[in-house]
């Protein structure tokens, strides 16, 4: 496919951006991991955190991904209605993934359903996944990139509850999911929880919630208290780093919501592992950009 000069510029930056966030964790996650390391009281927990930071240092030094599982690439896009790269956006992002796969390099993780063949370039049917929100009266574009690894995807779950079960049932579902599967996601975890009227909406919101910084809160007083209470309760499980016990379980609990039907209450849980490869970049109309999650990145 032939790109316009603007599309080529956009694709090149996104390829660099995608390769970069596979090697460097966002600033908020790094700070959270440092604080959690300081709270540990057992030798095994301290040892695991030390291994995490040694891994991150080696990845930066050698310019390679910090985890061998670089996941399935997902982009969460807030697209201004007047942003110059619109028609070619999907093609540009698919090409950016191909280029990043070679340059980073990224592990080949796109397996075609039914054919059961790996595409070899991390591009497949509807992959990279592109979640699109249109922003009226804007000529900017903000893109959250995410590497959905196998471990952090395994605990993903959703359920429609009877409304009479209430928020207590949401809490029970979250705890059951984390107690049963959370260890697979390489704790400490960042939890994304979606609450809506159907599982498709709840699951989408739960994944969007993972794009928020660790320690942030929903813009609703009751919702923010719900996040804090869930985090406090999950931390009392003391699953610890790597699931091998230790202080705390989560880096944070992020909840996103949508109004529901009166007869339905749906919940979804999505998890991010300790190596939470999430990043955000904002383009202006002239395609100048700023990486929002990693101070000084790609300057």
From TrEMBL:
InterPro entries: Class-I_Fumarase/Tartrate_DH, Fe-S_hydro-lyase_TtdA-typ_cat. Keywords: 4Fe-4S, Iron, Iron-sulfur, Lyase, Metal-binding. Residues 13-281 form the Fe-S hydro-lyase tartrate dehydratase alpha-type catalytic domain. It catalyses: (2R,3R)-tartrate = oxaloacetate + H2O. Its cofactor is iron-sulfur cluster. Its EC number is 4.2.1.32. GO terms for molecular function: 4 iron, 4 sulfur cluster binding; L(+)-tartrate dehydratase activity; metal ion binding. It is an enzyme of class 4 (lyase). It comes from the Bacteria. Tetramer of two alpha and two beta subunits. Belongs to the class-I fumarase family. This is L(+)-tartrate dehydratase subunit alpha. It comes from Sutterella megalosphaeroides.
């Amino acid at each position: 496919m032939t790109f316009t000069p603007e599309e080529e510029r956009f694709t090149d930056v996104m390829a660099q951006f995608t390769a970069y966030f596979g090697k460097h964790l966002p600033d908020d996650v790094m700070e959270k991991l440092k604080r959690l390391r300081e709270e540990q009281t057992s030798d095994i927990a301290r040892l695991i955190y030390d291994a995490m930071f040694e891994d991150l240092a080696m990845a930066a030094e050698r310019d390679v991904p910090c985890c061998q599982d670089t996941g399935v690439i997902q982009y969460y896009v807030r697209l201004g209605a007047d942003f110059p790269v619109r028609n070619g956006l999907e093609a540009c992002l698919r090409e950016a993934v191909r280029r990043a796969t070679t340059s980073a390099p990224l592990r080949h993780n796109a397996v075609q359903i039914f054919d059961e063949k790996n595409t070899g370039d991390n591009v497949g049917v509807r992959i990279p996944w592109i979640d699109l929100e249109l922003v009226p009266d804007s000529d900017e574009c903000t893109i959250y990139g995410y590497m959905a690894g196998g471990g952090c995807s395994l605990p993903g779950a959703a359920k429609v509850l009877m409304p009479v079960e209430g928020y207590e049932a949401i809490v029970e579902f979250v705890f059951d999911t984390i107690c049963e599967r959370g260890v697979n996601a390489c704790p400490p975890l960042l939890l994304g929880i979606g609450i809506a009227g159907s599982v498709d909406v709840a699951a989408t919101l739960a994944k969007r919630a993972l794009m928020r910084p660790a320690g942030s809160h929903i813009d609703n007083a009751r919702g923010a208290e719900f996040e804090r209470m869930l985090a406090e309760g999950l931390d009392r499980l003391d699953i610890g780093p790597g699931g091998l016990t230790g202080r705390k379980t989560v880096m944070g609990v992020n909840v996103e919501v949508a109004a529901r039907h009166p007869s339905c209450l749906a919940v979804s849980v999505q998890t991010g592992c300790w190596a939470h490869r999430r990043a955000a970049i904002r383009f202006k109309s002239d395609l100048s950009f700023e990486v929002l999650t990693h101070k000084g990145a790609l300057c």
